[in-house]
């Protein structure tokens, strides 16, 4: 199904640049554009250099939440906004007002507009995360000529995704850096201790091709995931520090800083579970941040921007998987070629 056993993960928020994707492709990896947080116009601009090469590549989209916030959620957001005010004052940042309108296209991550773009001007592969695209959407992408992947984090999610007609699954373990792709309520999550075990469990339950993701920091783990039943492995944190990565220098430096000795899953930055290096923001707000995405993401956005401008890594979202200490600096092509030699 894939031209390469190695996939450069789509990392939204500026990390996966067009230059990063093209460099990964040039080294032999399959590249995915990160469609999250982009308007349809910005996504089209991002895709233009990738299309010009005329080879296999993919685009990842976020599946938006359906329905308005519950009254209790609105109250929780107000409480969290008040909690963030002292930090905002220290950073010289403002915290956006509430509420966010459900009609604001940002809350839907420009879903309809980006789908229309991909139906009008198709790409070879489309992947979804944060939920399942409806079967009708999957079918429409198939008619346009795209293959479709769904991101899952458990056997239950894999079975649900298979019912929508997707062509393959990205099987993400909780060791992954950044946002979890989980979409079923707590209790449906995987209990497997590694991506290798999770891939084996999903392989036993569904017949679709699998991509292993989460905590793959070295070729040994990658080979084990392939042996467990994956047809490809996806690298994210392993490529964060590379030259072409659009991650902030502050973030790249933190990944190599011995002061940061642990990661944790936290909702503090965006309201959605995500794995990051443990810093002051995680410690101060991890226990109180509400489970409300993307509204918490909007609340903390100006604070994160101000922290980056001030060089304050303690208030920045330092996404990192559990194998972050194995991430390497230098050209992304060199990292990818090193993995491919071993695979």
List the helices and strands and how they pair.
Elements: E1 6-8, H1 18-26, E2 30-34, H2 40-52, E3 58-62, H3 71-91, H4 111-120, E4 125-129, H5 135-144, E5 147-152, H6 155-162, E6 168-172, E7 178-179, H7 195-205, E8 210-213, H8 219-227, E9 232-235, H9 249-255, E10 263-266, E11 274-277, H10 280-285, H11 295-310, H12 332-342
Parallel strand pairs: 1-2, 1-9, 2-3, 3-4, 4-5, 5-6, 6-8, 8-9
Antiparallel strand pairs: 7-11, 10-11
Describe this structure in words.
The chain is of the alpha/beta class. The protein has 2 domains: 6-67 and 104-247 and 326-342, TIM Barrel, CATH 3.20.20.70; 72-101 and 261-317, no CATH class. The protein has helices at 18-26, 40-52, 71-91, 111-120, 135-144, 155-162, 195-205, 219-227, 249-255, 280-285, 295-310, 332-342, and strands at 6-8, 30-34, 58-62, 125-129, 147-152, 168-172, 178-179, 210-213, 232-235, 263-266, 274-277. The strands form 2 sheets. It has an 8-stranded parallel β-barrel with strand order 1-2-3-4-5-6-8-9, surrounded by 8 helices. Strands 7-11-10 form a 3-stranded antiparallel sheet, with no helix packed on it. Helix 3 (71-91) runs parallel beside helix 11 (295-310), helix 4 (111-120) packs parallel to helix 5 (135-144) and helix 8 packs across helix 12 (332-342). The longest helix is centred in the N-terminal third of the chain and has 21 residues, at 71-91. The protein is globular, with a radius of gyration of 19 Å. The two termini are 17 Å apart. The model has no long low-confidence stretch (mean pLDDT 95).
């Amino acid at each position: 199904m894939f031209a390469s056993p190695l996939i450069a993960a789509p990392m939204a928020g500026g990390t996966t640049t067009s230059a990063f994707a093209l460099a990964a492709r040039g080294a032999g990896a399959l590249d995915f554009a990160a469609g999250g947080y982009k308007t349809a116009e910005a996504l089209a601009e991002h895709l233009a250099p990738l299309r010009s090469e005329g080879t296999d590549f993919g685009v990842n989209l976020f599946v938006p939440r359906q329905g308005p916030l519950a009254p209790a959620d609105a109250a929780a957001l107000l409480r969290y906004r008040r909690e963030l005010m002292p930090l905002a004052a220290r950073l010289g940042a403002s915290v956006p007002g509430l509420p966010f309108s459900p009609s604001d296209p940002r809350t839907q991550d420009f879903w309809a507009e980006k789908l229309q773009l991909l139906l009008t001007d198709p790409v070879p592969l489309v992947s979804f995360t944060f939920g399942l695209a409806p079967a009708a959407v999957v079918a429409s992408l198939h008619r346009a000529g795209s293959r479709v992947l769904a991101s899952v984090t458990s056997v239950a999610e894999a079975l649900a995704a298979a019912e929508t007609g997707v062509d393959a699954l990205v099987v993400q373990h909780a060791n992954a850096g950044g946002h979890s792709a989980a979409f079923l309520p707590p209790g449906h999550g995987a209990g497997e201790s590694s991506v290798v075990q999770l891939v084996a469990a999903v392989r036993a339950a569904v017949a679709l091709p699998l991509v292993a993701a989460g905590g793959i920091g070295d070729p040994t783990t990658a080979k084990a995931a392939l042996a467990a039943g994956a047809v490809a492995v996806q690298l994210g944190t392993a490529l964060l520090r590379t030259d072409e990565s659009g991650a902030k220098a502050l973030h790249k430096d933190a990944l190599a800083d011995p002061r940061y000795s642990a990661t944790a899953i936290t909702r503090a930055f965006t309201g959605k579970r995500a794995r990051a290096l443990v810093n002051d923001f995680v410690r101060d707000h991890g226990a109180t941040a509400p489970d409300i995405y993307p509204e918490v993401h909007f609340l903390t956005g100006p604070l994160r921007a101000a922290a980056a401008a001030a060089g304050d890594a303690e208030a920045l979202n330092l996404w990192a998987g559990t194998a972050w200490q194995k991430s390497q600096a230098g050209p992304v092509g060199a990292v990818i070629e090193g993995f491919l030699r071993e695979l």
